[in-house]
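Methods, example record. To illustrate the input and output format used throughout this study, we show the complete record for Ribosome-binding factor A. The sequence lines were provided to the predictor; the line carrying structure tokens was produced by it.
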Amino acid sequence: MESKRQQKMASLLQQELASVLQRDLPHLFGGGLAPGISLVRVTPDLGQARVYLSLLIGADANERLEIIRENGKAIRQALAKRIRQTARVVPELIFFHDDSAAYAAHMDQVLGTLDIPPAPKDEEKDDEKPARPRLFNPKDDE
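The corresponding predicted structure is encoded as:
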């Protein structure tokens, strides 16, 4: 379980990294869409941050991840300019591809192919079902 300090740092990094990638360094992506930051996990000593990027599904996702990893130093420097008043040390950034969207699409496809038979209909009518037990006797109230 993460401490409050780790959670605060992770939240700060997530917000500021998104701004850095979209505003400060959009040229890294050749005018394309900057990746989203889906999750940031920080080590207890705040020395490393695992950044999970939500890249577009497709063949160029690995290429875009490599571009980000190659420019990790520039990203970290731009991040340091943004959080220098808030954080003492900027953690080392380790980037990963978050494939949860692809997994969700795969699971949706699998669930769509299942042949689930309809539930059997109840043969009892609503009138024949036993009544719920009473917590008190209505005759006692009189």
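Annotations derived from this record:
The chain has four helices and three strands.
The CA atoms of residues 89 and 128 lie 71 Å apart.
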